[in-house]
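Example (one chain per record):
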Amino acid sequence: MESILALIADPAAWVALVTLIAMEVVLGIDNLIFIAILTNKLPEHQRVRARQIGISAALLLRLALLFTIAIIVSLTTPIFSILGRGFSWRDLILIAGGLFLVWKATKEIHHRVDPSPAPDMFDRRAAALGFGAAIGQILLLDLVFSIDSIITAVGMTPHVPIMIVAVIVAVLAMLIAANPLSEFINANPTIVMLALSFLLMIGMVLIADGFGVHVPRGYVYAAMAFSALVEGLNMLARRARP
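Predicted structure:
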């Protein structure tokens, strides 16, 4: 109790909290874009429930991981080496998650540009299978993004209460933004392709991270923001045409 009161009275703790919340919200964008695109493939009556389940699972995973910080930190310890490069469990998880994102984004892009796409697992004629598959894929990426998020949090502050508050606030922000973002993406077909390209880029960044090539996230999000700005100008130009 004393430590929590000490944190409340410590200005440095408040700075760390605000910084970590901002970082967690930014890291949550990747997760949110994936959930938005995936749930928009489901029948309309299932979308909100799938988003709620996906984001709630993200919160539970992050909180559970916070209470196993010792294990999470140990995930960065190399378990084997190839050509002098050590690979940890975190590296393997990031590589697997990145490969999944690249596969998923490529598959969705192909599905959209193919003039006669074949039915896939999200076909409405198999809605129950589609819902289960969507939740499974969301949970898989939740795990990857959660591990990355918590390792980032551990690197920014040693105080678990600050991490817990930051994670809860960030996930609540995801929950609030999920439906508006999903509806906006669904209403603007060109945004879907842009969002899929974001997922493709994020997948490549995760793979690079797993192989020890760190790409500063600031560059990634700056590229995403610039692309979104250009697409916004294109949308305004299309609406301005008579």
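Caption: The two ends are 65 Å apart (CA to CA).
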